[in-house]
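Field log, afternoon session.

UNIT: design team B
ACTIVITY: writing a sequence onto a fixed backbone
BACKBONE:
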């Protein structure tokens, strides 16, 4: 069994800006630029193209925090660079360490005041594996999909992250590790947001992480998780193997998945699994299915059997993760014996299955939890209504009745 999900940490000092309509810094972040575009800027300013390399080296391998500190650049050029680009798109970052130093949760402020988070998890070396440092990053501020067990989903959608805002989360962690002579080994897009609904920016950010002149992280060390955006999965399949694809399955029965992953009303589970199957067949890369296990909701024998039926003959791997407690839901995570029973039923049907623990137990929460903490308190009456609605929707789903609600607004419009 492996550990992946971190716990939330005590609340932070950072608070989001009062309004998401605050003006944004329009200058592109330098880490999100294509190397050729940065080189073109230097050519246009009568400079040799190796200057672009100097900037990149300072960003990825140096300790500089502004263009002004890159002393290899001509002094007169530095203010021009600063007028055109941002050296760092994360204006403020607060890091908290927990789990005896094994988990570092960072909250980042963006130029318009919104907050996103990233989580760095350290895995010490074992007899059969080397030391690993995995970073979980955000691709959007908030999320439009609105899964009811997810703290980010409860926030609603704010906006897509820019390429550099995604890349800079990684750069911050890589720099923190470099101080102790350590290197980032894995990046997972499992923080806030639905990566396949911001796919252009996510692909650009992955190209930056892959680039040997920047982070140089191999595609096998990058995983992207989706709640089931079928056109996005198909687009990735056409591109060929880019990274490991994880699909958040949660339920094999449509009525229940409609409630747990509202996007299911747009792309039902059979279509999602079909797209994932094609992806695995075309790219030769096994797809991982994630199941967040909720006590008495999606963890019954009936659910295990429906899942086994759906994934039969699939080159797949299922990860079972007990739900972290999130405010505003009436649910709790499935206790371990029931998770083990579910895993055993899947394995008896020939489906590779592992159980993942949430890191730490003192304050249970998934990626996205802090964002909700920062967003402030929701009125008790609103919380109560939301809980009541979830209880009645999930009860109807367990009777097999499909939701009449539309799919999340603006999601999946082609
Ligand atoms: N939007 C994408 C990626 C970000 S969420 C997706 O849904 O796949 C990453 C993972 O965290 C998903 O598998 C999601 O189901 C899981 N997750 C969200 N809230 C959780 C919680 N309260 N407990 C456990 N896992 C959770
Ligand atoms: Fe969005 Fe993923 Fe959270 Fe669902 S689980 S609301 S898709 S971030």
């Amino acid at each position: 069994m492996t550990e992946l999900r971190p716990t939330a940490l005590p609340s932070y000092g950072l608070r989001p800006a009062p309004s998401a309509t605050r003006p944004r810094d329009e200058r592109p972040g330098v880490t999100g630029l294509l190397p050729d575009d940065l080189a073109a800027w230097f050519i246009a300013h009568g400079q040799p193209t190796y200057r672009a390399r100097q900037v990149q080296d300072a960003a990825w391998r140096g300790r500089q925090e502004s263009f002004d500190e890159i002393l290899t650049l001509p002094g007169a050029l530095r203010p021009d660079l600063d007028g055109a680009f941002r050296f760092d798109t994360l204006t403020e970052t607060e890091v908290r360490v927990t789990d005896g130093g094994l988990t570092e949760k960072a909250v980042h402020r963006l130029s318009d005041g919104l907050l996103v988070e990233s989580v760095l998890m350290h895995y010490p070396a074992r007899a059969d594996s080397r030391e690993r440092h995995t970073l979980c990053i955000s691709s959007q501020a908030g999320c439009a999909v609105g899964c009811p067990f997810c703290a980010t989903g409860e926030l609603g959608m704010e906006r897509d992250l820019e390429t550099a805002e995604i890349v800079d989360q990684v750069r911050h962690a890589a720099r923190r590790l470099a101080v102790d002579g350590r290197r980032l080994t894995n990046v997972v897009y499992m923080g806030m947001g639905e990566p396949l609904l911001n796919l252009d920016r996510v692909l650009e950010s992955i190209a930056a992480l892959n680039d040997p002149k920047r982070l140089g992280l191999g595609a096998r060390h990058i995983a992207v998780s989706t709640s089931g955006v079928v056109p996005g999965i198909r687009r990735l399949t056409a591109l060929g193997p880019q990274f490991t694809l994880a699909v958040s399955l949660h339920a094999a029965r449509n009525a229940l998945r409609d409630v747990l992953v509202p996007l299911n009303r747009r792309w039902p589970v059979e279509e999602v699994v079909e797209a994932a199957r094609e992806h695995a067949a075309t790219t030769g890369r096994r797809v991982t299915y994630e199941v967040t296990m909720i006590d008495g909701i999606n963890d019954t024998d009936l659910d295990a059997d429906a899942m086994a039926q759906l994934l039969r003959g699939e080159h797949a791997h299922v990860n079972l993760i007990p739900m972290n407690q999130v405010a505003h839901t009436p649910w709790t995570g499935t206790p371990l014996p029931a998770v083990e029973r579910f895993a055993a039923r899947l394995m008896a049907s020939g489906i590779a299955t592992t159980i993942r623990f949430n890191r730490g137990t003192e304050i249970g929460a998934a990626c996205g939890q802090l964002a909700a903490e920062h967003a402030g308190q929701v009125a008790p009456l609103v919380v109560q209504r939301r809980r009541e609605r979830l209880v009645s929707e999930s009860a109807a789903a367990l009777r097999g009745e499909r939701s009449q609600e539309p799919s999340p607004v603006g999601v999946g419009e082609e």
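LOG NOTE: Residues 143, 145-147, 150, 152-153, 193-194, 227, 248, 368 surround iron/sulfur cluster (ligand 2) (CB under 6 Å).
NEXT ACTIVITY: expression trials, pending approval
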